[in-house]
Amino acid sequence: MAKTERSIRVDSVVLRHSDYGEADRLLTLYTREQGKLRAIAKGVRKIQSRKAGHLEPFTRVTLMLARGHDLWIVTQAETIDAFQPLREELDSMSQAAYVVELLERFSYEEGANRELFDLLVNTLERLVAEKDPFVPVRYYEMRLLDLLGFRPLLFECAACGKPILPEDQYFSAELGGILCPADGMQKNLVRPVSMEALRYLRHFQRSSYAQARAADPTPAVRQEIEALMNHYLTYLLERQLNTPEFIKQIRR
Question: Counting C-beta atoms within 10 Å of the first and last residue's C-beta, which end of the chain has fewer, N or C?
């Protein structure tokens, strides 16, 4: 960022906020123009504040930011899309929270990535449009891994490189992909993967979203895929995510 740049206008999604001082909020944003940023919204917790409604998590908002001593300061805010339906049901809100948590955990304040920004916005739009969040969220996970350089190997063994045959396999988070039975039985910390789950994982990896929408796995296969993706993402992050446990509690 140029040192002479005293103010910027950004198209952003609010990932999260936290109280800061007596009346301010610290915002974590993902912006189209600058990538991940932190900014202070001064006085936003006061009753008379006009900015408060524009700065809720997973709101897409146009912001004017002025450079402060350490952080950007929000001077203007205008909502583009509040994704209001995501706030009306706890399950929808938890899925949106998972989407933004993943991006926040995997991203750093290191410059723009417009593909990541577009993926985030498109996924929030899909969660509003679709009754079932399974495909939007699983597709998001797979595209996120692609864009971050963690694309899992699903068509050849991650250990020996041989093509994967149509039979149940294993998955190694350490090696970043599927293992054939011969290698899977020799490795530690691997997870069994059914051929049906692998078929859908491949479908999400190589399809457009329009094509991916046709996926309709059984409840058991959905659970297997979700658990496998959570296992891989947790391994990459080297820490547990908060929202999957919250989602499980809601389902109970």
Answer: C
